[in-house]
Design brief:
The protein has 3 domains: 43 residues, no CATH class; 103 residues, Sandwich (Immunoglobulin-like); 30 residues. By secondary structure, it is α+β, with helices and mostly antiparallel strands. The longest helix has 20 residues.
Length: 191
Amino acid sequence: MNKCQDCHVKNGVEPPFNATNLTNPMHRAAANCTLCHGGDTPIALHVLRKSSGVPYVKDIILVPRKSYEGDNISISVLAVAGWDASITNIEYFIDTAGEGGSGRNLTFGKEFSDGQVREAFADMDTSRLKGGTHIVYVHARDSKDRWGDVLPAPFVINKKIDALYLFRHWELVFLVAGVLILIYLFRKSGK
């Protein structure tokens, strides 16, 4: 766990540290300070990652990133709200980002720090997408009714190849087979 509590909750509010007292239960119970604060060094931890206070999407995971027309793609998202707020909605758009509240909602998973950090999941339907590269845009709303900026993530849809495609063109199959037989016979007779 973190050692932030040593200075900001227990001992550090007095000289020589004069650290800000963070005894609010939601803040002091945080298991991972680096979601909102900088890296894992004492100096980096004192830098806020997002100072605007609006919610933001930290991670988007797409499985698989390359798929075939009509196959679902699983999307997993981690969103973080600003201080003293919680995530209330996470939604996504495919290829064109829309206004807050007009996308497809993700289903909430685990929550951390009383909802300030939330996981969410969905299966994206790709049946209406043509082959090529597409972009999923994701954003989150917090309990203060603020929508954050969208975070894009690319994925690729490949065209499905029908297994019976070759058999629709019997002439081509017979032509290739005939040419291969003739090559075999000429090589055999040339020995």
